[in-house]
Amino acid sequence: MTEPIERPGGRTSRVRHAVLRAAGDALAESGFPALDLAEVARRAGVGKTTVYRRWGNVPALVADLLAEMAEESVARTETGTLLGDLEANALLVQQTLTDPRQGRLFRAVIAAASCDERTAAALQRFYDMRIAEWVPCVEAALRRGEVPEGTDPTTVIMAVSAPLYYRLLTRTEPPTRADALTAARSAVAAATAGAFVPL
């Protein structure tokens, strides 16, 4: 007997959204070690068997959570200049990391990724998707001649968010708007100087 095809927005979609929301809340509150599928099911108001059957274990659930977060992330902003685009990117990252729920969630996932290979792989896929979303901004800057030929767009985008994540993980206070703008301007200055042209 074949499984029924679920319509977009049908019960399967609603259950997934509820479970992933509950998982994100639990992860932000208590961290990865305390994440429990049965507790997530209770929070989501669904049966334990549904959660165990669909996800099977915590790393698989976290991987799906990160996939949903990537899918629902805000699209890139195109301002017509590399500085404007990268400032928009940096501010988006900063706003995410300073969000009371999202900031704690990312700390928990990053900590889990250091000791769980499946979570690490899921986190990398999340960042790969977000970087790919913003790479066209640097490609456009290349066409406009704002940065030297051969500049690696991926490295430029990574250079914007790296200082903000570093601050998140090494300081008690989250990154500020000023930190975000400084990160963007630093990345533009480095890119303009040819720092991201592979040797």
UniProtKB/TrEMBL annotation:
Keywords: DNA-binding, Transcription, Transcription regulation. One of its GO terms (molecular function) is transcription cis-regulatory region binding. InterPro entries: Homeodomain-like_sf, HTH-type_TetR-like_transc_reg, HTH_TetR, Tet_transcr_reg_TetR-rel_C_sf, TetR_C. The keyword rRNA-binding does not apply. Residues 36-55 bind DNA. It comes from the Bacteria. The keyword Ion transport does not apply. Residues 13-73 form the HTH tetR-type domain. This is TetR/AcrR family transcriptional regulator. It comes from Antrihabitans stalactiti. The lineage of its organism: Bacteria, Bacillati, Actinomycetota, Actinomycetes, Mycobacteriales.
